[in-house]
TrEMBL record:
Gene3D superfamilies: PucR C-terminal helix-turn-helix domain. It comes from the Bacteria. Residues 335-392 form the PucR C-terminal helix-turn-helix domain. InterPro entries: CdaR-like_regulators (IPR051448), PucR-like_N (IPR058663), PucR_C-HTH_dom (IPR025736), PucR_C-HTH_sf (IPR042070). It holds the Pfam family PucR-like_N. Residues 16-179 form the PucR-like N-terminal domain. This is Uncharacterized protein.
């Protein structure tokens, strides 16, 4: 016996319906179509407005084709449903363009099915059809609605995926422009933000990632985080302050990926934030900063400053330590190490000796030697500060200033 079958994705085959049932239902279609339109637009006013809009003809044609295709398939189970499917996909596209979820349309489908079932019961009484046949019709009808919903979702998903891709591209372009060296015209920024559905923040935090950045990161980020992940130096922009909630989000999204969090800065300084974050990642690679899943720049500001221009620091160190240049290398190295601990801790000889692992008397002897060679460099505040900065920088880089 001919039957309506569901598509493989939807489920098991339906109970069979006799082909002659189509002959009973087909004459009812014009009246049924009008009844469904009236009740659906009353229950869902949005579709009343849609029927009177630019997509009205497509909506009316889609509803009609969905009903006709059902009856045609009862009469001929092998009948193609291509036209119906394309119209249903258009339904889904319209819902996506209108910004609605699919629950409203699914509700309209099911309401239409209940109206059709009510009409079938009336036809059953008119032609004295068996209750078993009406039950089989109900089963076929609601399974058919599931099929309609599945096809509609295809069109809906198509638009949503394309829109998400377009928004992602716009947001990535916006991120590029924010990090560009030249300032952006305000009108350009505003227009791009509107197109990308992104609110321009007052402050932001940049995050540098060690490449390659795994693709799943994007899905775990907050919706307003801008990202550029498939480049040699992947990075993120987190709008606003770095709250505990934002940090927790980053910790989850970047699990297994080494990253450095820049400072929270005004948007105009975003390029500085990502530059600092990348520098800290390099410090981790160089062994200057301890490794961690998520390193924060704010914990290493002095290191960032002291190592911002190593060549200049080398020149500063050479100038301030020039009076020690004539000493033997070993002696010079010991004096410089003692000097570093002394100027950075301001501690007494006993404590300096404990840090260096030498006797306090040895420290005092070295300090007298340093005083003799460096003179007012140790008493003048500016010169002493220059010495401390240079020696700390050299120490962070693992350089032996005594060489």
């Amino acid at each position: 016996m001919p039957s309506i079958t569901r598509s493989p994705e939807v489920g098991e085959p339906l109970e069979p319906l006799p082909r002659k049932f189509a002959a009973f239902i087909r004459p009812e279609l014009p009246g049924l179509l009008n009844e469904i339109r009236a009740e659906v637009t009353r229950a869902y006013p949005v579709y009343g407005r849609l029927l009177n809009g630019p997509n009205g003809d497509a909506v009316r044609q889609g509803v009609e084709q969905a009903l006709v295709a059902f009856v045609d398939r009862v009469a001929d189970p092998g009948r193609s449903s291509e036209l119906r499917d394309e119209l249903l996909r258009r339904f889904g596209r319209v819902e996506a363009y209108e910004g609605r979820d699919l629950e409203t349309l699914q509700g309209a489908y099911r309401l239409g099915a209940r109206i059709a079932l009510r009409r079938a019961k009336s036809v059953g009484r008119q032609y004295n059809l068996s209750p078993a046949l009406i039950l089989a019709f109900a089963d076929a009808l609601f399974s058919y609605v599931e099929e309609l919903e599945a096809v509609t979702r295809e069109g809906y998903a198509e638009v949503r995926e394309r829109a998400a891709s377009e928004v992602f591209a716009l947001r990535r372009r916006l991120l590029h422009l924010i990090l560009a060296s030249s300032p952006l015209p305000q009108t350009t920024v505003s227009e791009l933000c509107e197109a990308a559905a992104w609110e321009l923040p007052r402050t932001c935090t940049l995050v540098a990632l060690r490449p390659p950045a795994p693709a799943p990161i994007q899905a775990a980020l907050d919706g307003d985080v801008l990202a550029d992940l498939d480049i040699p130096q992947p990075h993120l922009l987190v709008p606003g302050d770095l709250t505990p909630q934002r940090l927790a989000m980053l910790g989850t999204a970047l699990s297994g990926t080494r990253a450095a969090v820049g400072l929270t800065v005004p948007l105009a300084q975003a390029a500085d934030s990502v530059r600092w974050a990348r520098r800290v990642l390099q410090f981790v690679d160089d062994g200057v900063v301890p490794d961690a899943p998520l390193v924060r720049c704010e914990d290493h500001l002095i290191t960032l400053w002291l190592l911002s221009d190593p060549a200049l620091v080398d020149q500063l160190a050479a100038r301030e330590l020039a009076p020690l240049d004539g000493l033997p290398a070993g002696r010079r190295r010991r004096l410089v190490e003692t000097l570093r601990v002394h100027v950075s801790t301001r501690a007494p000889a006993e404590q300096v000796g404990g840090i260096l692992g030498v006797h306090a008397q040895t420290v005092r002897y070295r300090l007298r030697n340093l005083d003799a060679h460096l003179g007012d460099r140790l008493t003048d505040p500016d010169r002493r500060f220059a010495l401390e900065a240079a020696l700390r920088s050299l120490h962070l880089r693992g350089h032996d200033a005594g060489d």
